[in-house]
């Protein structure tokens, strides 16, 4: 159910609110920060209720953030002439920033759970989980900061592009991290965990296939470009 809710909210952002998000992103950022503050408050006072049971997982389990990150990543593998790419590309940066804001809830919640156990964190699965989480958080911070226009404009274009390539390992590692968190519950038959892993795996699998296909197509285009140019020169000379 939380995936369906996250899907509806994401659809509203990328379709209904695309133009205002592009022109006036600040109110959306503030709204996301307000939802994050609501999550922190509700967690602190241990609030309960049916509405809260739907809202809390969106923030705590990173469902909404992961889906927004997925949209950002999928835009990059769509064909240049794809109308969906044309619609989403102008708000890709804004969606990335929103996803980072929503991900903070997940990071803070689990940091508060693991930090008290730091003395035993350097052995076994806990050490791997903490190390992976720290790496993902560092990558997200770099991508988040460089997504703002003021930072981007202060950097060389080539440097900025190279930094943005960190999005690929970040996205893959995020999936691995979420899968590892859900796996213990899934192994004991928790339906929500099983469905969540299945959905995340399907999304990641589709992305890997599309990204690989695009990389192969780009390489073929580069390989055939010189031959095409030579043919044109020969035709012109004739």
Automatic annotation (TrEMBL):
Lipid bilayer topology: Multi-pass membrane protein
Transmembrane segments: 58-77, 97-115, 127-145, 166-186, 192-210
InterPro entries membership: Fe3_Rdtase_TM_dom (IPR013130)
Compartments where found: Membrane
Ferric oxidoreductase domain location: 64-174
Keyword terms: Membrane, Transmembrane, Transmembrane helix
Annotated Gene Ontology cellular component terms: membrane
Protein name: Ferric oxidoreductase domain-containing protein
Organism of derivation: Adlercreutzia muris
């Amino acid at each position: 159910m939380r995936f369906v809710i996250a899907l509806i909210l994401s659809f509203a952002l990328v379709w209904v609110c695309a133009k205002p998000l592009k022109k006036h992103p600040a109110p959306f950022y503030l709204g996301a920060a307000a939802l994050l503050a609501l999550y922190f408050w509700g967690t602190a006072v241990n609030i309960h209720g049916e509405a809260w049971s739907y809202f809390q997982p969106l923030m705590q389990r990173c469902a909404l953030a992961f889906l927004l990150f997925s949209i950002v990543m999928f835009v990059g593998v769509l064909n240049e002439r794809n109308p969906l790419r044309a619609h989403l590309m102008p708000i890709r940066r804004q969606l990335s920033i929103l996803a980072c804001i929503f991900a903070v809830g997940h990071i803070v919640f689990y940091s508060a759970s693991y930090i008290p156990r730091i003395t035993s964190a350097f052995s076994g699965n806990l050490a791997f989980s903490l190390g992976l989480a720290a790496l993902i958080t560092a990558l997200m911070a770099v991508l988040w900061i460089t997504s703002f226009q003021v930072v981007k404009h202060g950097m060389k274009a080539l440097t900025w592009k190279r930094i943005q390539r960190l999005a690929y390992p970040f996205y893959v590692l995020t999936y691995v991290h979420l899968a590892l968190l859900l796996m213990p519950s899934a192994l004991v038959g928790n339906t929500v965990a099983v469905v969540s892993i299945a959905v995340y795996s399907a999304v990641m699998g589709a992305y890997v296939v599309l990204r690989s296909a695009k990389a192969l197509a780009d390489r073929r285009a580069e390989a055939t470009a010189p031959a095409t140019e030579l043919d044109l020169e020969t035709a012109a000379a004739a």
